[in-house]
From TrEMBL:
This is Helix-turn-helix transcriptional regulator. It comes from the Bacteria. Residues 20-73 form the HTH cro/C1-type domain. Gene3D superfamilies: lambda repressor-like DNA-binding domains. Coiled coil: none annotated. It comes from Streptomyces graminearus. InterPro entries: Cro/C1-type_HTH, DUF5753, Lambda_DNA-bd_dom_sf. It holds the Pfam family DUF5753.
Length: 283
């Protein structure tokens, strides 16, 4: 089983920490001696080496100067920045409001020609109706202690952003689990509208909508929600954070996983039948 995104982000942090520790040991310095050479308390050295504290760019430069390995500083600074950018807490992202979060992603959406989306829990944002989006973002606002009206503004921003599915030059390959159709995220009317829209959206020329039936023989287990932007970025949604994966090897893992999930899905008339059954179940 592949490592979870949070584990992947932590592993990236630890790789930097372990390399710094190796440089100290290779230079024959103790934790205390390294700290003295850098001008900080020895506890900071321990925190950095144990990946409890992420080093700043200046910390890394000072470390490399103390160990006479200045030629490694630039590479380690870049590696550390990449590791920290992989893991961004939702709390930090939503501080400016859910609407700002929706609008901040418009450029990434428009810079991507082929979107691959997988979701085991929700209808993906690009295929949401306003009523469904309002319910989803209302839950998010409640979880993060944000004003109720923020979710309404965010829902409108999300719908505005999703108009891209009707524009030329983009392709959207969406795979969801059948259970997504039955989760009562919104009230019955909003759910009926959302499911009805899936029938419409799934017929759009730019959209390929696959649904993995609950009765399908699994060749891959359900995964966390993730969005692949061309072949350059994977955005993974966790409870506490969003993980941005940019390493080519890890992106390849997600592409392979997506294809496995995609192969289990049904399309066209079979997919529409599953949606209609979910609509009937609302009664």
């Amino acid at each position: 089983m592949p490592a979870s995104p949070s584990s992947s982000a932590q592993a990236a942090r630890e790789a930097v920490a372990h390399r710094l520790r190796d440089l100290r040991k290779e230079a024959g310095l103790t934790v205390v001696q390294l700290a003295a050479a850098c001008g900080w308390h020895h506890s900071k050295t321990s925190r950095i080496e144990n990946a409890l504290t992420g080093p700043s760019a200046n910390d890394i430069r000072s470390w490399c100067a103390a160990t006479h390995t200045e030629d490694e500083a630039r590479g380690l600074v870049i590696q550390s920045i990449n590791a920290e950018s992989m893991y961004r807490q939702w709390r930090d992202q939503v501080r400016a409001g859910l609407r700002h979060l929706q609008e901040s992603r418009v450029k990434a959406f428009r810079d991507t020609e082929c979107h691959r989306l997988y979701s085991a829990g929700l209808v993906p944002g690009l295929l949401q109706t306003e009523g469904y989006a309002l319910a989803v973002l209302g839950i998010a606002a409640d979880v993060h202690g944000l004003p109720a009206d923020d979710s309404a503004k965010a829902a409108r921003a999300r719908i505005e952003r999703s108009r891209i599915v009707h524009e030329r030059g983009y392709r959207f390959i969406v795979v969801i689990e059948e259970s997504v159709l039955h989760y009562r995220i919104a009230d019955p009317d909003a759910m009926a509208a959302q499911l009805g829209y899936l029938l419409t959206a799934g017929a759009l020329p730019a959209v390929s909508l696959g649904i993995v039936p609950t009765t399908a023989r699994r060749t891959h287990w359900p995964e966390e929600t993730f969005h692949i932007y061309d072949n350059r970025l994977v955005s993974v949604e966790l409870v506490s954070a969003e993980v941005n994966v940019t390493q080519p090897g890890e992106i390849t893992q997600y592409l392979d996983t997506f294809e496995r999930l995609r192969a289990m899905a049904v399309y066209g008339a079979e997919a529409r039948l599953l949606v209609r059954r979910a609509i009937e179940a609302l009664d």
